[in-house]
Amino acid sequence: MTATFLHTYVNEHQYEDIGEVLYCSLGLRYGEKEDGIFQPESDYSIAPDLTRSSQMLWFSNLLSRTEYGFITRNEEHDIHPYFVKLLLDKEEEFAKLHVSVENIESRTNI
Fold this sequence. Notes:
Blueprint: H1 2-13, H2 50-63, H3 81-89, H4 91-95
């Protein structure tokens, strides 16, 4: 689950928010106050600095553009065809979550 759907969702959709460094910061948030990083976006003390923000934008774009290791493509022929069929049978349910089954990865590509 973690190496497939959750990782796929994070990497395939983070590009939609690239540039929103105050809430979409790949975990690069800082918090020295009592509530740590759980501050409103208006509190710039939790935001990464300019260098880290620029690097984050680059990494977000890189990580969201991996194009290998998809279950339904089975590029290495290491996924059982029945599992591919089961996944394709659930295509409409995944679409309701805004995830294309064609983009679900069989491994972490980082």
